[in-house]
Amino acid sequence: MEARDAELKKELDATLHARRELGEEYESALVDSFLGKVEQRLDGTIDRRMRRHMAEQQMVVARDSRAPGGAVDSWGERFGFGIVSLILAVPLSAIGVVNADLPGLFVTWAGIVGVNAVHSMRGMHFGRGRDRGRKSEWDD
């Protein structure tokens, strides 16, 4: 910020010097020109701050959507997990039956059902949401 202040000070000195040389007839034009430069600097600063703020907000949203227990998983992810678990169920069932007969099959399927149940419940909050105390998106 100091470099910008020095630059703005040089602009003001140049404007005042030009006013002394040109006289009072050009005073309003010189002041308007200087104020235009100040306005451009302010606009640039505000634009940078808004872009930074928007980027920070996008990062917060991106982090929240990937956080465990954050947003509910997409339908495609749940569907894919179900398909993969069914595909893996066939060889796992065969291994369970070969090694422990019918009880091995029951244990294998209990494990498959348990893994799918845990996966389906990981997006649920059970009334304890992270945003419970917030009134709106604008509260920080």
Please, could you describe this protein's structure?
This protein is an all-alpha fold. Helix content is 77%, strand content 0%. It contains three helices and no strands. It has helices at residues 2-22, 27-66, 75-121. The two termini are 27 Å apart.
Provide a concise account of the structure shown:
The protein is mainly α and 140 residues long.
Kindly report the oligomeric state of this protein: single chain
The span between the termini is 27 Å
Q: Please identify the structural class as seen in this structure.
A: mainly alpha
Radius of gyration: 33 Å
What ranges have pLDDT less than 50 throughout 5 or more consecutive residues?
A: none
Topology (SSEs and partners):
Blueprint: H1 2-22, H2 27-66, H3 75-121
Helix pairs in contact: 1-2
List keywords for this structure.
140 residues; mainly alpha; 3 helices
